[in-house]
Amino acid sequence: MAETILQERTTLANGVEMPVFGLGVWKSSNKEAAESVQAAIKHGYRMIDTAKQYGNEAGVGYGIQKALVDNHLNRKDLFVTTKIFNGDQGYLSTLQNFDEQLKRLRLTYVDLLLIHWPVEGKYLDTWTALEKLYHEGKVRAIGVSNFDEANLQDIQNLNRLMPQVNQMEFNPLVQEKHLFNKMNGLGIAMEAWGPLGGGEALNDATIKAIADKHGKTTAQTILRFDYQMGAITIPKSAHEERIVANAQIDDFTLTDEEMAQIQGMNKEKHSIWHEDFAWHKGSEETGVKDSVSYWDDTDEYLNKEVVY
To answer: What is the pLDDT of residues 49-98, one digit of tens each?
Structure first.
């Protein structure tokens, strides 16, 4: 049987195999995350991406355990990613808080641990903590998220481990050309958050025309573009039918001309960047709010039992 996008793997610089396509759960409640995770795994997804900041690690953890039981899978069949919250950064704080993240996820290790944002004055100490967790076997791969070329150079200057992954906003409107080139030179895999590019990309006439030509949706066409550009992709959806449809991108290929048309949409303008956060503004009253999302179903999913 031919390999599907959900079965395809890429080999990271440290030799760990990582799926090239998975499920993201940003802005999902614990209930939504649990249900999305179960649906995704049922339909063949093997990679789940969450973060402490999303406030849904408890739901993700329940969803993983329930799906493992329901689908007769083992933990090693899945690739689970979470991230270090900005407010937890620093060496000791990272180590202490990561143990709590594992408990919420009901796991003894994660496959990939990322620094969520490069908090000034702290991200190198945080990276040192990630190296310790990696050497202890609590994580199989370590990486970063939202790190630009200068941030990556700071880690490179340590002359120790380099990130295996950098998760960045990546889609037709933000293609990270210079950063992508640097990462390729350092052996760092690009992983795309916000891979669909929001309403502007999804409603673009050029993409719609390409999608119609292939008998695909604009979302599927964008995800195929991301894939052909070499980005690991984790689209988010809380709807089972969209979770299934998002992965149906391995039965068509965009031509060089079509790729060039979509590449021409690049604006290199992030929807959010770390200078916008309150911790870069000097006051919690300004900038983007930087806190763990609160959902009133957290305690329910922390204590919810999986029936075996």
So the answer is: 999 999 999 999 999 999 999 999 999 999 999 999 999 999 999 999 99
* Alpha-carbon span 221 to 236, nearest angstrom: 16
Q: Can you give the residue ranges of every domain in the chain?
A: 18-288
Q: Which amino acid is at 56?
A: N
> What pTM was estimated for this model as a whole?
0.96
Q: Which of 54, 62, 123, 227 is catalytic?
A: 54
Q: Which two tokens stand for residue 94?
A: 């990272």
Domain 18-288 classified CATH 3.20.20.100? yes
CA distance 12 to 181: 16
Residue 307: name the closest of 69, 33, 57, 71 by CA: 69
Cβ–Cβ < 8 Å for 18, 56: no
Phi (first) and psi of residue 190, to 5 degrees: -90, 130
Closest CA to 100 of 138, 127, 44, 72: 138
* 118 beta partners: none
Catalytic residue at 109?
Answer: no
22: β partners: none
